[in-house]
Amino acid sequence: MRRLLSRIGFYVVALWASVTINFLLPRLMPGDPAQAFLAGMQGKSVTPQLLAALRAQFGVTDAPLWQQYLSYLNQLLHGDLGISNTNYPETVSQILSTSIPWTVALLGLSVIISFIIGTLLGILVAWRRGTWLDSLLPPIMTFISAIPYFWMALALVYFLGFILHLFPIGGGFDDMLDVDWTSFDFISSVVSHAILPAFTIVLGSISGWILVMRNSMVTTLSEDYVLMAQAKGLPTRRVILNYAARNAVLPSITSFSISLGSIVGGSLLTEVVFNYPGIGYALVTAIGHQDYSLIEGCFLVIAITVLAANLIADVVYTLLDPRVRQERS
Fold first, then answer.
1. In DSSP terms, which residues pair with 83 in a beta bridge?
2. More confident site: 80 or 1
3. Does pLDDT of 265 surpass 60?
4. What is the pLDDT of residue 260?
């Protein structure tokens, strides 16, 4: 319990550091949200009163930095992330609440599917080491993992979407439909638009899970406790799952937690290539329009998800590995 509390304290300090950096970075960038917003008001007269009102609304002030920092922390505690100048007058919280579900649904399910399939295939390849499966699958997976992700995504979009017309090329759903999660037509459109980016994510990441699990399993299978289990005549399935795979999967658990934590931040390239309406696409749009409030909100969500995923990994690792519990006790 004491160890868990110390880890929680560490992540609280890390979260504070992330919030502080998130506060400082936009304020070190040139310009301000009010000027960026006025840049899009072509042909309209801008009075000093209008500029001052916009600066106040976007939270731009000439107060000392420490006062701005305290005001920023107070706003965070009240759930106020500011107003987006890109989607004025929408708030950052409204934009994130509509963008995050798209990202979590697409990348979350894709990463989980990739991890499960890759881990199971890695176990199978390690157990069948020396056979044709072990000689064929790892080299193919190594070749696939060497392909840059954006090239793979563009190639799949071109052949499966543009040439063969099997899947929609981009977007999260058909633009002719209204957002209605009770409509079968809308849900089927969302699923059809998500298949190609999800397939790209699974294909691009499954090779890593297979290779890591295969190598870890090969090392674990030579351990004394696995050989003893085989010598006792235990069923092969029990030896593989309860003795070898349970210990070999521990390094993958850490990588899996990092992957889950990086879902929000790692969605940028996927959503840009497929024009998918998630938080990564919102972040790219915010950077292009100097939308500092939205940039801060996106970075804050990314930091929280990464820290939360690592905390969960610590807890799960302790539950799976009794050696860690004994050491901590």
1. 91
2. 80
3. no
4. 66
* 87 contacts 70 by C-beta, under 8 angstroms: no
Instruction: Supply the DSSP string of 230-246, one letter for each residue.
Output: HHTT--HHHIIIIIIIH
Q: Which of 93, 72, 62, 78 has the alpha carbon at shortest distance from 24?
A: 72
CA–CA distance, 329 with 1 (Å, rounded to integer): 9
- Whether the CB-CB separation of 264 and 279 falls below 8 Å is answered with yes
Q: Which of 322, 326, 279 is nearest to 100 (CA)?
A: 279
Q: How far apart are CA 293 and CA 93, in angstroms?
A: 10
Please give the Cα distance from 73 to 93 (Å, whole number): 15
Question: Which domains does the chain possess?
Answer: 2-77 (no CATH), 94-328 (1.10.3720.10)
Maximum C-alpha span of the chain: 86
Q: Which residue has the tokens 């890109």?
A: 86
Residues 6+ apart with CB under 8 A from 242: 229
Give dist(CA 200, CA 223) in Å, integer. Answer: 36
Assessment of whether the complete model's pTM goes beyond 0.70 = yes
Question: With bands split at pLDDT 50, 70 and 90, how would you rate the model's confidence at 261?
Answer: low
Given CA atoms 84, 88, 89, 90 in this order, what sign does their dihedral have?
negative
Rounded CA-CA distance 248/221 in Å is 9
